[in-house]
């Protein structure tokens, strides 16, 4: 139990301590006097052997890889897929009280980490201009959003799994769940928000099937319809707001600033921020002179987002409807200056409690790409490019893939041979776990992986020995894999391997009452 609690307490914050938790589990497992019996039990457990084939495949792929250093590094990251299922499946399962203790500690650790992130971006000078991703202080914001969603599921399980649960416990669970929903929304993780929406949709469908009262079912139908209509309406209204275009009378633009310096007007450019044209009313001379007086980062230097400060400044001033000259600079606040230095291009991104800035960013990226803008720095558009690259790598290695060690080198070679327009800093991997598996192990490997992940669930479901938490957990993980290499970091691999093992083999089968 101590090892389990160390793992769940550190999952949102410290890969180092999750490793310690796993070593504690391993030492306790090895110290058991029934170790020989446990070892024999491994070969008898078909579901366990099936799951372990996932890790075995990674090891075998070293036979056709060339970069052993990278391959061994990947095997190290994936060690939880070997250690955790072996230990959990051959150890005494948890009873309901022990399970709830593990879930409570996990949810509370997620809560503490979220509070640290909320404090950082709300009350610290650095956080005021930080990217929303900074709300996850220790691990990727996408992986943290998965933990937030699972915490919501586990808290609702604790609250309503047993009718005898105390009212105060139910209230605490519901309040914490609502807080986690709020946090996912203000963190603006599209992956987390989509998963949250799918979970709510499935929850409504589940409740509709369970409710016996026809009136109750109709109430749920109404709520479900309202939820879907509200979500669609919000996106449509956000796009309409983004599509606003200011009437700037291009034939009547001023030729000089109030100081007599010439403006530059590129009326052929259609780039806008909040409906205002970016490349008109620009006086580089005044911008450079006045910006260097008030800022810590030079006008011609790179900002925090690998984007030149001068371009960020021009877009930011445009977003506020200001001219790009000394007058515009004079109207910037200290918070605005910090935001520009941190690479924030639009003042609306300083709004922590609205989803619209994230949708605005998505709309802008698409429009920028469609108008022939350079790929680089736009997360969604880049992902499409990464997927195209990954698919082409797979087509050249269809049967057994490139092997676990050559994924990075295969991408590097592809970017070089195709003369990719991406800067080196943005030349990354697929950001799609399914495609990563496909190009790493080929068609043969992906069949083995599908078998390894779904056979245990299928077999144990037939035996009625699968936790009710397993299905929502798998939905969370499988959806995340569409937009992220969820298992390519230690935090992601441990999160998946731990809860898969716990919800599959780690719980005591309930006694069936006559």
Quote the beta fraction: under 5%
The average pLDDT is 87
Estimated radius of gyration: 26 Å
Helix content: 55-70%
Shape: globular
| Multimer state | single chain
- Sequence of secondary-structure elements: HHHHHHHHHHHHEEHHHHHHHHHH
The major pleated sheet works out as: 2 strands, antiparallel
Q: What are the low-pLDDT stretches, counting only 5+ consecutive residues below 50?
A: none
Structural class: mainly alpha
Description:
With 514 residues, the protein is an all-alpha fold. Among the domains are: 2-43 and 67-235 and 485-505, no CATH class; 250-350, no CATH class. It has 22 helices and 2 strands. It has a two-stranded antiparallel ribbon with strand order 1-2. A hairpin with a 2-residue loop joins strand 1 (272-273) and strand 2 (276-277). Helix 6 runs parallel beside helix 22 and helix 11 packs antiparallel against helix 12 (214-242). The protein is globular. It starts with a helix and ends in a 9-residue tail after the last helix.
Keywords:
22 helices, 64% helix, mainly alpha, two-stranded antiparallel sheet, 514 residues
Spell out the blueprint of helices and strands.
Layout: H1 2-10, H2 15-30, H3 35-44, H4 46-60, H5 68-77, H6 80-89, H7 96-123, H8 125-128, H9 141-160, H10 167-187, H11 190-210, H12 214-242, E1 272-273, E2 276-277, H13 284-294, H14 309-319, H15 326-330, H16 334-341, H17 356-370, H18 379-395, H19 407-417, H20 433-462, H21 470-480, H22 490-505
Antiparallel strand pairs: 1-2
Helix pairs in contact: 1-2, 1-7, 2-6, 4-6, 4-20, 6-22, 7-9, 9-10, 9-11, 9-21, 11-12, 11-21, 12-17, 18-20, 21-22
């Amino acid at each position: 139990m101590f090892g389990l609690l160390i793992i769940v307490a550190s999952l949102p914050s410290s890969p180092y301590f999750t490793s310690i938790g796993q070593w504690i589990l391993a030492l306790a497992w090895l110290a058991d006097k029934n170790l020989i019996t446990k070892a024999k039990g491994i070969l008898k457990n078909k579901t366990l052997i099936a799951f372990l084939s996932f890790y075995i495949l990674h090891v075998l792929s070293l036979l056709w890889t060339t970069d052993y250093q990278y391959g061994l590094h990947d095997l190290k990251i994936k060690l939880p897929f070997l250690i955790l299922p072996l230990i959990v499946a051959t150890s005494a399962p948890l009873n309901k009280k022990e399970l709830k203790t593990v879930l409570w500690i996990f949810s509370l650790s997620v809560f503490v980490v979220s509070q640290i992130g909320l404090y950082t971006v709300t009350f610290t000078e650095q956080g005021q201009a930080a990217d929303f991703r900074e709300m996850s202080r220790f691990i990727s914001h996408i992986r943290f959003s998965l933990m937030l969603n699972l915490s919501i599921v586990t808290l609702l399980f604790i609250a309503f799994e047993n009718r005898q649960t105390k009212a105060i416990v139910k209230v605490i669970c519901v309040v914490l769940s609502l807080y986690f929903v709020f946090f996912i929304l203000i963190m603006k993780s599209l992956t987390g928000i989509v998963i949250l929406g799918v979970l709510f949709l499935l929850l409504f469908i589940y409740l509709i099937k369970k409710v016996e009262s026809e009136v109750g079912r109709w109430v749920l139908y109404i709520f479900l319809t309202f939820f879907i209509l509200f979500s669609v309406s919000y996106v449509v209204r956000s796009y309409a707001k983004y599509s606003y275009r200011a009437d700037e009378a291009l034939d009547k633009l001023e030729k000089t600033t109030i100081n007599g310096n010439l403006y530059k007007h590129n009326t052929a450019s259609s780039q806008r921020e909040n409906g205002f044209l970016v490349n008109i009313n620009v006086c580089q001379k005044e911008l450079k002179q006045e910006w260097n007086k008030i800022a810590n980062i030079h006008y011609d230097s790179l900002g925090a987002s690998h984007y030149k400060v001068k371009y960020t400044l021009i877009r930011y001033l445009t977003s506020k409807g200001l001219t790009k000259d000394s007058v515009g600079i004079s109207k910037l606040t200290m918070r605005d200056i910090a935001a520009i230095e941190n690479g924030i291009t639009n003042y609306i991104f300083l709004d922590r409690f609205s989803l619209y800035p994230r949708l605005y960013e998505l709309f802008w990226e698409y429009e920028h790409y469609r108008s022939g803008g350079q790929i680089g720095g736009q997360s969604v558009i880049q992902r499409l490019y990464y997927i195209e690259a990954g698919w082409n790598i797979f087509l050249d290695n269809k049967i057994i893939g490139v092997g676990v060690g050559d994924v990075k080198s295969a991408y590097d070679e592809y970017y070089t041979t195709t003369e990719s327009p991406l800067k080196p800093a943005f030349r990354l991997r697929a950001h799609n776990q399914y495609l990563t598996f496909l190009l790493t192990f080929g068609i043969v490997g992906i069949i083995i992986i599908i078998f390894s992940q779904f056979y245990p669930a299928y077999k144990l479901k037939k035996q009625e020995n699968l936790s009710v938490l397993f299905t929502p957990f798998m939905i969370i993980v499988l959806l995340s894999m569409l937009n992220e290499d969820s298992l390519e970091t230690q935090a992601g691999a441990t999160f998946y391997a731990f809860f898969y093992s716990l919800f599959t083999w780690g719980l005591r089968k309930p006694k069936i009452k006559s």
